[in-house]
User: Fold this.
Amino acid sequence: MFSLGLIGLLVRRDLIFVLMSLEVMLNAAGLAFVVAGSRWQQADGQIVFLFILAMAAAEVSVGLALVLQVYHRFKTLDADALSEMKG
Amino acid sequence: MGLLWLIVAIPLSSAIMLAVLGSRFSRSVVTAWGVGSIGSSAVITMLVAADFVSAPPADNAYTEVLWTWIHIAGFQPHIGFYLDALSLVMILVVTFVGFWIHLYSAEFMRHDDGYSRFFAYMNLFVASMLTLVLADNLLLLYLGWEGVGLCSYLLIGFWYRDAANGLAARKAFIVTRVGDTAMLLGLFLLFTSLGTVQIQELMHRASERWAVGSTLAVTAALLLLGGAVGKSAQLPLQVWLPDAMAGPTPTSALIHAATMVTAGVYLVARTHGLFALAPTAQFVVAVTGAATLIVAGCSALTQYDIKRVLAYSTVSQIGYMFLALGVGAWSAAIFHFVTHAFFKALLFLGAGVIIEALHEEHSIFRMGGLRKELPVAFWTFLIAGCSLAGLPFITAGFYSKDLIIWGAWSAAQGHPGFWVVGIVGALLTALYTFRLIFRVFFGPIQTPVSKRPGYAITVPLVILAFFVIVGGYVKEPLLAFVQSTLPTMLEEGAAGMTETLSGGIAALAFLSGLYFAYLFHLQKRSLAEAAVANPAGRVLHAWWCADWGFDWLYDRLFVQPFLWVAQINKNDFIDAFYTGIARLTEALYRALQLAQTGLVRWYAAGIAVGSVLFLAIVVFS
Assistant:
C-alpha cells in the first residue's frame, strides 16, 4: 500500500492526485503501526495512529489551501509545469 | 617644573576629544579647544622655561618620570620627560610657533567641512612632536617620531577626495618610512650592545665602552642618521617634502617650521655624544647637509609653485643645519633652527594668504603687484624673506646663517670646501627668495585679489614678523644657554680668514643674489626667459625643476621593479592554491545545480531512492 502511494506520487502529475497518494502513504504507515501494535500487544501502535490521523488532517488542509493558491496563480495543477524554482 | 607633563598632555587630550566628539561641537567650540590647547601648552612651556632659567636644576637637566611603560627582563623604558636647554628651546619654538599657526588656521580653514578633524590632527601633530622632543629614552622618542609621521600622512592627505593628495601623503609616509627603518635598526643596535634606551645613560655608556671611530659607533650613528635624513628631507630622501605641499597651507607651515622636518636635526643634536664617537658619521652628516643645501637651492630656483619654492628652501635650510651639526657647530644648528622656525612659518602663512586671495592660484608667474593689494602680507613676507636670504645686521637669519658658514670652516671638523658651499648656498638662497618676492609682489597685477585676510590671520603674521627681527638679537644668550647642554664648538681657526671677513663675504653673497634676482625677475624679465630659452638652459631648468631627476630615478629603481615583482607574484603558488579552491567549489556548485530541476516529483523520487538506499545500508551492513 505504501509502494502503491509512492508510485502514485511519482507518476501522477496532478497535484490533487499527488496529495491523495500522500494520504495513501500515510495510511499505509498508520496501518503498519496498528498491525505492529496488535502483533506485540502494545497500545503504542494505536496511539501513534491517532497522531498520524491528526497530522494527516492538518496536512491535507494546508496542502489543499496551497493547491488552491497554486491554481489561482498558475491556472494549472500540473506539478511538472510548476518548475519555477529550477536552479 | 612639575607641570612638564601637561605640555604634552593638553594637546594630546584635546586631539583625542576633538577626534571623538569633534563633529558634535560647534565650530567656535572646536576653535576654542584646538587653538586653546596649544595656547595653554605654550603658556605652561613659558612658565617652565622661566622656572628653568631662574633656578637651573642640577646638571642643567630635569627628568620627570611618569610611569614605567614596559617591564620585561631588564628592558624597562619609562614614560618620562627630560628637560634640558636643548629640549627647552625646542618645545618653546614648537608650542609658540605652533600656537600662532593654529590661530591662523582658525580663520584659514573656517569654511572647510573637516574643521574639527583638521584641529584634531594638528593637535596630535604638536603633541607627537613634543613627545619626541621631551622623551628621555629612545623608545618614547620613537613613539613621537612615528606619531609625527602619522600626522603628516593624515594632514598631507587631508583633502582626501583628490587622489593626488592621497598619493602625496602615501609618498611622504613611505619615503620617511625608509629612514625610520634605518633608525629602528640603529635603536636595536644601541640597545643590544649597550643595554639601555635611556638617552643620557646611553651616551654615557657609549663614550665609556666604545673607542672613537669604532665600527659599532659609526654604524649606530649612521643608522640614526638614516632616520634623521628621512624625517628632515635631506638627500637622498628629500623627495617627499615638495609633494607634501598637497596639504592645507597651515599644515605646511607646521611641518616646515615647528614639527616634523626639524626632528632629524633634533635627533642628531640629542645624540651628539654618539656622533662625537663617530667622526666618519659626522663627516657624512656634514656632506649630506652641504649636498642637500646646493641641490635643493638649485631646485628652488626653477619651481613655479610658490609653496614648492618654499619647500625646497626648507630642504636647503635644513641642509645648513645638518652642515652645522656635521662640523660640530651644535649650537649654531639649534640657533638656525629657531630663526628658521619663525621665518619659515611666516613665509608659509603669508603664502597661504596670497594663495587664498588669488583663488587658489599657486604659480608665481601668474601673480604680481600684490604689494599694494595685500600690504600686511607683503611686509611680513618681505621681512621673513630677508631673514631667509640673510639680510645683514637686521634679520635673525643673517646671524644664524653667518654663524654656520663661519663654523663650516673654523670648526675642528670644518673644511674650506664646506665654507664655499655655505657661501654658494647663501647666494642661491638670496636669489630664489627675491625671485619669489619680485614675482609675487612687484610688477604688473596678473590675477585680481578676491579676498582679504582677517585679524586671526594678520595678527599671527605680524607677531611672527616681530620675532623674526628680534630673534637675531638674542643670539648670545641663546647660544650660551644651549651650550649648557651641547658641547661648545671646537674652534680651530681658519687660515687667512676671520669671522668678520666671512660675514662680509656672506653679506656680499646676499647682495649679489639680490641684485641678480632684481635683474632677472624685475628689471629685465626677458633675461630670465632668454636664459631658459637656450638649449643648455632649458635642459638644466627642466632637470632642476624635476628635482634633479630623483623622482624619476626612484620610480625606475624601486617603484617599477616592485610593481613588476608584484605582477609576477600575483599568480604564485599560494595564490594558485586558493584560486584552485575557489574553482573547485564553483565546479561542484555547477554540478549540484543540475539536480535542482524544480520538478517536485523528481525530488520525491530522490527522497524515496535515498531512504531506500539508507535503509539498505543500515539493514545489510
User: Anything to note?
Assistant: The longest helix of chain A spans residues 44-74. The CA atoms of residues 79 and 85 of chain A lie 12 Å apart. DSSP finds three helices and no strands in chain A. The interface with chain B takes residues 6, 9-10, 13, 18, 79-80, 82-87 of chain A (CB under 8 Å).
